[in-house]
Amino acid sequence: MTSEPPALDLRSQVDHLISAGSADLASLCLARIWRKEAGSVAAAFLVSRFEQVHGKLDLVPYRLAVLRSFTLEPAIPLIRAEAFVRGIDLSVRLGDFNAYAQEILDPDSSLYRFAPDAVILAAKTADLAPDLWHQYPDLAPEAVSTAVQRVSNSFGQWIRAFRERSSAALVVHSLELPPRPSMGLLDGQQETGQSAAIQQINRQLRQMASEHRGVYTLDYDGLVSRHGRLHWHDERKWLIARMPIAADHLIHLACEWLRFLVPLSGKTAKVLVADLDNTMWGGVIGEDGMTGIKLGPEYPGAAYQNLQRAMLDLKRRGILLAICSKNNPEDAMEALENHPGMVLKPKDFAAVRINWTDKAQNLREIASELNLGLDALTFLDDNPVEREQVRNALPEVTIIDLPEDPIAFAATIQDSPVFERLTLSSEDQQRTTLYAMQRERTQAEQSFQSKEDFFRYLDQEAEVAPVSPATLARVAQLTQKTNQFNLTTRRYTEQQIADMAGRAGWHVLSIKVRDRFGDHGLVGVAITRDEAETCEIDTFLLSCRVIGRAVETTLLSHLARVAAARGRQRLCGRFVPTKKNAPARDFYALHGFQHVEENLDGSVWTLSLQRHTIASPDWIRLKTTEGDSH
Amino acid sequence: MTFTILDQVRAVASDLFGVPVNRITAESSPETIEAWDSTQHLNFVLALEEKFGLQLFPEEMEQMRNVGEAARLVESKQAGPR
User: Fold this and answer.
1) DSSP per-residue letters across A510-549
2) What is this structure's pTM?
3) ipTM of this model?
4) Chain B residue numbers touching A44 (CB-CB < 8 A)
C-alpha cells in the first residue's frame, strides 16, 4: 500500500523558515501540517519545532500539571501540539505513577513547586476502586456503599486540600464504567449494580466540584462512551505498559483536555460569523430560490437545521452570531425572515453583512461594529477558497474548517473548543440583546451635535461595589477576556480574585452601568493594593461595550477618592502594552498622572492625591456600595 | 511518485526521534538513535498503530528492533486479515 506521504515538503519548509528567522510563517506552516495530519507523528514534529520558535511568537504561556494513575506520556505531545496551534504555549508536568494523593496533600510537593495554572487529575476506576472493579460480586450491599463513600471522600479530601494549597484550576476525570459489568445483564436490572455504584461516585464528584471555585469535572466516562468503550480500551497495552487507551484515541483525550484549557487560558472566541449558501442552508438562494434551497426537518435539509440548532446553542452560551454572505441582500433576507425551515431568526444575529464585498473586509467591519478585536471572531464557511483567503488576510480570525459532508457540520462547531465556557454569567446569556441595545445607541448618537449632549441624553448610571459571591465569576471572566481597554492584562481565576479580595490592603471593585436604552451589566473591574502611602492599581479594565462613554473616568475618580479617604498619598498605575490594548495607552496621561518610569514591563504613572483629584463627569450618576470586600 | 512502507516508517521515526529523515535507514535502531529509549519505543509503536490503523502485539513490539523490522511488521499486518 502507498498512501499520501507525510507532508515532507511542508516540514522542510518549516525548518527553512525557522533558520531564516520567520517564526510567524513557520507557525502558520506548522498549523497547516496539523490540519492535514493531526496525530502522534505530527505532534512530535510540531512540539520540537514550536520549542525552537515559541519565544518569538505571540502565545499565551500556560502551565499544566497532570496527575495520573496510568501511562499518559504519549498524550503529552498531542495536547502540546493542539495547544500551540491555538496560540497557547503549553508546558506540561506529568506526575509520578499513582503519586497523585501525596502530591495533592503535601503542600511542598513538586506539583505546587511547578506553579501550575491548571491541574488534571486522571485516575482509573480500577486503581481508585479496585474492589468495585474487580471484586464486585463478592461485595455485600453495605460493602458497596462503603466503597462508594470511601472513593467519594477521597475525592472530597483531595479537592479541599488542593483548594487550600493552590489557586490553579482543577479538572478531575470522572470514573469510567466497566465495559462488561461483572453481573452481566443483571447489572442493569438493579438499583445497586456495579455501574450504578460507579455512577454514584461520579454524581458526588460533580456535586463536590460545583461547590468549589475553579474545580471542574471532565466527564471521562462520557468521553469513552462517545468514542466506543470497546475501541477506546487497549487491554494489551494496559497489561504491558499501564497504557489503557488505544493509539488512535489518545488524540481524543488530548482534545477533551484542550476544551478546558482554551477557556481557562482565555483563548475563546466571542463571535461565530457564518456564511449562508451551502452553510446555513443547502443550495444558493439567489439561484434556487425559497422553494429550492434545502432546509427542513427531512434529509438533506435537516443537516442544515442541525447546524442552526447548534448555533442557537452557542447563542445561549453567550456567543454572538453574525452573518457574512455574498448575496443580494433582498434574496437572503427573504429566506432569513420567512423560510419555514429557518431555526435561527434575524433577531438572533448581532451583525449582518450580506453584499458582494470580499469577506475579509466584511469581517473587519463586523469586528468594529461589535467593538471587538478580530481575534474574537470565528469564521464558518463551506467554501475552502473563502476560508483560505480569510486565513491569509486576517490571521487573527479562527477559521472553522467545515467537512464536505453537511451532516457533519453541526458536530464540527460543537467540537470546537473556542466556544467552550466554564461559567455562564447573566451577561453571557443576554449578550445578543445587549448588542441590539448598542445598535440603538449608535443610531441615537448620530442625531446629536456634541458627544456631551449625547452623554446627557444617555442618562447613564454607574454603580461601584466590592466584588461579592454573586459577581465573582463575572469579575474573573472580565480579567480573562478583556483585551482592549485593559491597562495591565493580568488574567485571574475566580479563586485568585477571591484570595485578593480577602487580603488586607487589597480592594477588588466592579462597576455596573445602565442607561436609558438598558442595562450593560457588570462591565468594569479595578483591583488596588495599598502599600504604605501608595495605592497601586493592579488591574483596571473596562468591557469594550462602554469604552468612550467616560465610565473609565468615573471609576478612576472613585479609586482616587477612596484611596485618599483611606489616607493614601498617591495613586500609582501601570500600563503594560500588549498587541491589543492600544486604546488604553494614554489613559493615565489624560487623567493628569505623572510618567515616572519606563521599564521592561511598560510604563509607571503616579498621581499625587494631596494635590489632585479626578473630576467625575457630571453626566454619570454614581452609586457606591460601601463596605470592604472582605 | 510512490512511497514505500519503509519510507513512511522512516518519516514517522524522523518526526518521533527528531532525526532528519535522510539519516534514518532500515538499520536505524535504539543503538544508533539516541532518543529511541523505552518511552519513545512505546510512542513509536502507538504512532505506527495510529498511522497505519493496526494493533501490534507485545511480542511484536519486542521484535521491532530497528526501522526495517518495524516496516516489515507493518507490511505483514496490512497484508494479513484485519
Assistant:
1) EEEEEETTEEEEEEEEEEEEEETTEEEEEEEEE-GGGTTT
2) 0.83
3) 0.90
4) 15-16, 18, 43, 47
